[in-house]
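Subject: sequence -> structure tokens, single chain

Hey, anyone have a minute? Need the predicted structure for the following. Not urgent.
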Amino acid sequence: MTELEKHSIGGVDSLSAALNGQSASCPLCFPSTGEPASLQNNVDTNSNKVEGMTKQKTQWKKFLEAVSTLQWVLSFLFLGLSCSILMVYLMFTSLWPLSTLYFIWLVMDWQTPERGGRRTTFVRKWRVWEHLRDFFPIKLVKTAELNPNKNYILGCHPHGIMSFGGFACFSTESCGFTKVFPGMQATLVVLAGLFRLPLLREYLMSAGICPVSKPSLVHLLSKNGKGNAVVIVIGGAAEALYSSPGVNAVVMRKRKGFVRVALEFGADLVPVYSFGENELFRQVIFSESSLGRRLQDLFKKIMGFAPCLFVGEHLAFLPYRTPVTTVVGCPISVPKRVTPTEEEVDHYHRLYMEALSKLFHEHKVSCGLSDSHKLRIL
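Reply:
Had a minute. Here:
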């Protein structure tokens, strides 16, 4: 993202820089009463349903899930580059008028992503997303209500390699976000640079995805009415480099830009944790001082995202069939401050980190982790 900051699809490295100024198989997601015991019962009941459905899967169903997941992985990795090469190639063929007309349209439509984009319910409800959800499966869990008369900033952790939990829960209706949170509209914001790529930008906007730039956040939080849940993958590309099975690490100690924006618009903060996200791929983790890590950091600094050396369970790119449970925490009330002080930013940033840690430890066992697992905040 550039004035602000994507496997998002994406991270928020430039978000921190620009905003700081200093730099399932869950066919339907289920609500919770807010009581830990009730929530646990909901999780157990839903898990039993998932197990039953998994046993009944046909080979055809498994194939559809694998193909649906593979198409998303390949889209994530190669669609932007492929579309750019295609449009340039067409300029040197008899079809050059198509490419020319599109580039003219691109210039005229340049600001649309930062003005709310072009959300299409049809795309968000594609059946392919349900197969993607069922592959792992991915579940969405609610621990508290979100008031449709307010706006929220949801911090999604961890980034993982491709943020499957964040994408499925907030950029598609496969996990039933609008049913779980009536009156709310989720918008995942990702690397702004992705919206400069031809055709890919249209695909992203159709899913309701917007850039994580300052103008985009201003529009979503002040010019788009109420009931907006802006989802930011706080750790971004830097966090993706820590993604590995058994690791629960989030990068956010120095990332305060999202808190500053929340204060400027009086948007409540909501921690979100996707348990299992880091289990989907095996990644080569370079030590901090190694040449490999320095090259990754250099690439990230230039391009905005980090190249990860990872492998999945099948065909290299197909992730492991590990359940992903995305738990949406309780809102942290944030007052509106046109010009927030550093003390206020630090205060609410600390409250957010404490709430995220609490959310992790309250749900880690029910989401498949042992009681000994710790959350590292970097």
